[in-house]
Design brief:
By secondary structure, the chain is mostly helical. It has nine helices and no strands. The longest helix is centred in the middle third of the chain and has 27 residues.
Amino acid sequence: METKTSVKLFSEMAGTFALVLFGCRAAVVSGVGHTALAGIGQLGIAMAFGFSVLVMVYAIGGISGCHINPAITVAMLVAGKIRPGAAVGYIIAQFTGAVLGAWVLYLIQKGLPGFSPGEWAYGSNGWGEGYGAGYDGGSAFLTEAVFTFLFLFVIFGVTSRWGNSTMAGLAIGLTLVLIHLVAIPITGTSVNPARSFGPALFAGGKAWGQLWLFMVAPVVGAIAAALVWKVPD
């Protein structure tokens, strides 16, 4: 039986909401950017994002495919696996979920006595002096494009006729953990335009000014992966 479009869109919104809330909350606790509080470490952030995707794949993968990432949706569109109208709906739902997730995180942080958001607040992505290890924009763009390519390469592979679809959630989630372990010091790790948009909307300042990179680079990497996978198909 065909799943209703409204159910698919709600699933994408809820999944992205969970990803942003779990992952970015972990980043806030660990002090990425200028949001230092306690500290669960880089591994804790990586696991929060990766496990969020892992559980959502098994929760909503059968409903919407669990894109919860505009870059994935664009890649699926290029690969011919989703119709343009459906892709637009997915992307709107994903950005909506990301904003709602960041809004809840904002409300939580407001209740902390003495909390000052500072630059790149709420787990925002960024680069340059004052963020992470201080990598420049060129390194940030390359990182986001290449690691999004690898992320989509795994997604296409594990869900293809050659892959093991029953292990898709585990493979995809663990890939995101690996990506975060490597890329957090460079950009805080996006590979997902919606994940970057939500926190930047509430953080403003440098996070908002640098948002363009996290809108463009992941999509570039995702399209490249889709084009590579169209060859054997």
